[in-house]
Design goal:
The protein has 11 helices and 4 strands; from the N terminus they run αβαααααβββααααα. The protein has 316 residues and is mainly alpha-helical.
Length: 316
């Protein structure tokens, strides 16, 4: 019995009967999902060597055309007494003449030069604009590279590691000098320290759920030593620690100077030198202060201690 092109209602399966994929497809889908969830993972290659080579090829093309034009000029200069050679060098009507073979050769060569030089100029301008934008991007920090390499290099078997992408892409994060990160980089040294060594302390329930989702997308035996935490927690913790250290260094110095108020001036000066060095070290190591700012803040801190000692508050 022949069947018509129509479909019976009984033949239509409900949409809910189609099985849903238990996890994302390993490879580009999971890699894109990982980058979308973590701004620190927006790390890409700049391909600086390829960009430079492309411009060098364009430059060589123009160099070759320039050589051919110089050869034509040299041939005409060698036969400059010839009227046709003089017309080719001085008369525009001779240059645009469609019946003279040498004029046609020159005109075709000049048209090629015009086309190539326009393309070269356009590429140079684009390259300069794009390069200036790329230079404003930051290189990924060691913590960022470690995190993305940890995730990118999965380990389904203890003795046989494999990467999320295969082929040449397995070494995509090998050349650190050719990598940039699109997300803003937090260059505060204290925040970097907290992220690198105490990130587990700031993780939230949402971060734990995200880890569980990532594990579902990988094999059961695969482990990733990644910790997800809100960036604002690191910022707040860094601010609190900075305020606490500033207060400790100032109040602690005052308390210690009060304790040695009855001692000789050498002891007092030694205490001032000690606390000033500690203050300068904290400012230089845990903040992004420039040299001028470090000198200024250290001088102000030392001046406060000197004024405190000179007023001899401890004898009051």
């Amino acid at each position: 019995m022949l069947r018509t092109g129509r479909t019976n209602i009984e033949d239509i399966e409900p949409a809910s009967s189609h099985p849903t994929p238990p996890r994302l497809l390993e490879g580009y889908p999971t890699f894109a999902e990982f980058i979308a969830r973590d701004n620190d993972a927006t790390i890409y290659r700049k391909f600086e060597s390829l960009s430079a080579r492309n411009l060098l090829y364009k430059q060589s093309e123009l160099h070759e055309l320039e050589r051919r034009l110089e050869e034509l000029d040299w041939e005409d200069a060698r036969d400059i007494d010839n009227e046709e050679a003089q017309q080719g060098a001085r008369l525009w009507e001779h240059f645009r003449n469609d019946t003279n073979a040498r004029a046609i050769l020159r005109r075709e060569l000049q048209e090629k030069i015009e086309t190539k030089i326009k393309a070269y100029r356009r590429r140079i301008d684009e390259a300069m604009i794009l390069e200036s934008k790329v230079l404003t991007l930051n290189a990924p920090t060691a913590h960022m590279l470690k995190s993305i390499r940890t995730w990118f290099t999965a380990k389904s078997l203890p003795t046989k590691p494999f990467t999320v992408l295969w082929g040449r892409d397995k070494d995509i994060f090998k050349n650190e000098r050719d990598l940039v990160v699109l997300a803003p980089v937090d260059s505060d040294r204290l925040n970097i320290f907290l992220k690198s060594y105490l990130g587990w302390f700031f993780r939230t329930c949402m971060g734990t759920e995200l880890i569980a989702q990532q594990e579902k997308h990988h094999d059961a035996q695969q482990t990733t030593d990644l910790v997800y935490f809100p960036e604002r927690r690191i910022q707040r913790a860094g601010a609190v620690i900075s305020v606490f250290l500033s207060a400790i260094l100032l109040i602690g110095a005052i308390v210690c100077l009060l304790q040695v108020s009855g001692q000789s001036n050498s002891v007092k000066v030694g205490m001032i030198v000690l606390f000033t060095c500690v203050f300068a070290g904290v400012i230089g190591l845990l903040t992004n202060a420039r040299r001028a700012e470090i000198f200024g803040s250290t001088a102000a801190y030392a001046a406060v201690l000197v004024v405190f000692v000179s007023n001899d508050v401890g004898n009051g």
